[in-house]
Structure formats: C-alpha cells, structure tokens
C-alpha cells in the first residue's frame, strides 16, 4: 500500500512521485510534494517590486529610471520624473498613477524605483 496522497484534481490513488512533484497518470495533474503553509493567503498577497527589488505599496512615490514613450502621443516621460501616490493594480502594467503634464497612465514596475 502506498503512502502517496490521492490526486486533488480527480481523486485517483494511482499517483507517483517524480523530482519532488506528485503526478497523476489519469488526469496529468502535477503538484508539489512539499507542503505549503496557507496557500490561500499567498494567493491573496501579491508583492510588486521596483527595478532594484524594493517592495512597492499603494501611496508610495517612485522615480522613473528610463525615458518612456507614451503610446499614441509624441510625449515622453523623462528619466528622473517623480510620481507620487501610486496605486498597484493587476496586469502587465502594475502601477496606476497621474503624471504632471501628461495625465493618468499605467507604468510597469520594472521602469521605476522607490523614491
């Protein structure tokens, strides 16, 4: 009799372990063999980091580290532009903000550093 857990996806008892993962041959579901503490809490907490690795939060001030062209316009956000009171949002462009002279826009966290 096997000590391996049943598949959480389909409930099959035919699971096997390979390179630290449990694998179900019936539904091809793979999951980690190491238990994680509170996976629901990890999903809800998303960490956004700037270009140098500092954690960003809502309300922070950031500085742009590269000249950024604004799509659909001839405007450019210059390097060194300080942006205050950012909001973190889901998606590819994870910072929502207002820039003086340009207006509301979204930035990628990889192009800013915490001020």
SSE layout:
Elements: E1 16-18, E2 21-23, E3 30-32, H1 39-44, E4 48-49, E5 55-56, E6 62-64, E7 68-69, E8 76-77, E9 82-83, E10 87-88, E11 95-99, E12 103-107, E13 112-114
Antiparallel strand pairs: 1-2, 2-3, 4-5, 6-9, 6-13, 7-8, 10-11, 11-12
InterPro entries: YjdM, YjdM_C, YjdM_N
Protein name: Alkylphosphonate utilization protein
Domain Protein YjdM C-terminal: 48-115
Kindly list the characteristics that best describe this protein.
5% helix, YjdM, 32% strand, mainly beta, YjdM_N, 3-stranded antiparallel sheet, Alkylphosphonate utilization protein
The overall pLDDT, averaged over residues, is 86
Amino- and carboxy-terminal Cα gap: 59 Å
State the low-pLDDT regions, or none.
37-41
Residues in β-strands, percent: 25-35%
Rg on CA atoms, Å: 22 Å
Reading side by side through the largest sheet, how are the strands ordered?
Answer: 1-2-3
Shape call = elongated
By DSSP (H or I, 4+ residues per run), the number of helices equals: 1
The number of strands is: 13
Main sheet specs = 3 strands, antiparallel
Which structural class should the secondary elements be placed in?
A: mainly beta
Secondary-structure element order, N to C: EEEHEEEEEEEEEE
Q: Percentage of helical residues? A: under 10%
Give a verbal description of the structure.
With 115 residues, the chain is mostly beta strands. Helix content is 5%, strand content 32%. It has one helix spanning 39-44; strands spanning 16-18, 21-23, 30-32, 48-49, 55-56, 62-64, 68-69, 76-77, 82-83, 87-88, 95-99, 103-107, 112-114. Strands 1-2-3 form a three-stranded antiparallel beta sheet, with no helix packed on it. A three-stranded antiparallel beta sheet has the order 9-6-13, with no helix packed on it. Strands 10-11-12 form a three-stranded antiparallel beta sheet, with no helix packed on it. A hairpin with a 6-residue loop joins strand 10 (87-88) and strand 11. The termini are far apart. Residues 37-41 have low confidence and may be disordered. Residues 48-115 form the Protein YjdM C-terminal domain. InterPro entries: YjdM, YjdM_C, YjdM_N. Residues 4-32 form the Protein YjdM N-terminal domain. It holds the Pfam family YjdM.
């Amino acid at each position: 009799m096997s000590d391996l857990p049943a598949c959480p996806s389909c409930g099959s008892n035919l699971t096997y372990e390979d390179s630290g993962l449990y694998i179900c041959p019936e539904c091809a579901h793979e999951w980690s063999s190491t238990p994680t503490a509170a996976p629901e809490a990890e999903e809800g907490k998303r960490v956004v980091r700037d270009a140098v690795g500092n954690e960003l939060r809502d309300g922070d001030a950031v500085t742009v580290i590269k000249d950024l062209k604004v799509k659909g316009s001839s405007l450019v956000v210059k390097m060194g532009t300080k942006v205050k009171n950012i909001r973190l949002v889901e998606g590819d462009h994870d910072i929502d903000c207002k820039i003086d002279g340009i207006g509301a826009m979204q930035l990628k966290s990889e192009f800013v550093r915490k001020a």
